[in-house]
């Protein structure tokens, strides 16, 4: 009867909650161990610059393959790290690994390779953040201009003052700021107005099927003009197909990132060309990712 049905639906519901909780606890435990042993790795996805195919910036993306849990996506473990108070440690490990890597690449290519590193809202609100970044830049021998910190707009919402303080301190160092996942939050324009950003990364939802969606194309075009007006560089993320790419090229998009250019790859998957990194098949491995 209805009552019984209600009860069984309830127990299904509590089962789901229990499983979710168990997963979360397991991730927290295993992640803590992984961070203690420096077992997190980093992959790199190139950002292509129009008209300069040999020249590439990269975005560093945290990767975790656990002995018990297998591969866990950052979309799952980053929020857990944040809640469990592990984000400072995780963020520092990614930053150090990424800067060590681009320092090696810069030595090999003779060009100051630039790396984008994602920073969570919690990290960016920490009054010590900019100082820590400065220390890691010194330790790894990178120039501040080689680092772009990516902040997701929705994470800056709320009290922007603490975030603003860190962003200003970072810019004073010479580190650049990108607004990530632009256009998906509830206050994109307000964030763009309030925060001192050097670039915006337009979320991939604005790119999907842009070739068959005139309204989407108009929106993209308007966002590009907005970037120009504000003197902010525009990077378009999540470009998957050749036709999407064609539309972006027609619109005059300068910076493109997505599977169409390359998936995120381990450091050894990017090789050195005469003018920087290229996507040519690996002729020789660069620095091994010894430190992570
Ligand atoms: P994000 O910063 O927006 O990074 C881009 C995400 O889109 C990456 O997912 C990347 O693999 C994926 N992507 C790139 N090109 C394409 C494409 O053409 N199509 C599709 N469908 N996806 C594409 P990933 O690596 O799973 O990371 C997810 C999110 O986790 C990142 O989104 C970022 O916000 C967060 N994250 C990753 N590493 C870190 C980290 O070290 N620290 C922090 N705080 N967050 C991180
Ligand atoms: Mg990002
Ligand atoms: Mg991000
Ligand atoms: Mg993004």
Automatic annotation (TrEMBL):
<protein>
    <recommendedName>
        <fullName>Diguanylate cyclase</fullName>
    </recommendedName>
</protein>
<feature type="domain" description="EAL">
    <location>
        <begin position="24"/>
        <end position="278"/>
    </location>
</feature>
């Amino acid at each position: 009867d209805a009552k019984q049905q209600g009860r069984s639906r309830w127990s299904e519901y509590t089962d789901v909650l229990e499983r979710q909780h168990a997963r979360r606890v397991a991730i927290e435990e295993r992640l803590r161990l992984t961070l203690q042993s420096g077992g997190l790795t980093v992959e790199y996805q190139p950002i292509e610059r129009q008209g300069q195919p040999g020249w590439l910036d990269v975005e560093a993306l945290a990767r975790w393959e656990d002995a018990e849990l297998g591969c866990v996506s950052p979309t799952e473990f980053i929020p857990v790290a944040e809640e469990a108070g592990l984000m400072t440690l995780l963020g520092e490990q990614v930053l150090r690994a990424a800067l060590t890597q681009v320092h090696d690449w810069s030595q090999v290519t003779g060009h100051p390779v630039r790396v984008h590193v994602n920073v969570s809202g919690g990290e960016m609100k920490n009054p010590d953040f900019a100082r820590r970044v400065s220390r890691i830049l010194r330790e790894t021998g990178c120039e501040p201009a080689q680092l772009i910190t990516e902040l997701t707009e929705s994470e800056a919402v709320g009290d922007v003052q603490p975030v603003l303080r860190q962003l200003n301190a970072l810019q004073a160092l010479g580190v650049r700021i990108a607004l990530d996942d632009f256009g998906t939050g509830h206050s994109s324009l307000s964030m763009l107005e309030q925060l001192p950003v050097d670039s915006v990364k337009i979320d991939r939802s604005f790119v999907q099927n842009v070739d068959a969606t005139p309204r989407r194309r108009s929106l993209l075009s308007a966002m590009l003009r907005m970037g120009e007006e504000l003197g902010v560089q525009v990077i378009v993320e999540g470009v998957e197909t050749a036709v999407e790419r064609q539309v972006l090229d027609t619109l005059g998009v300068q910076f493109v990132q997505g599977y169409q250019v390359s998936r995120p790859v381990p450091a050894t998957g990017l090789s050195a060309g005469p003018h920087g990194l290229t996507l040519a098949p690996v002729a020789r491995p660069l620095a091994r990712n010894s430190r992570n």
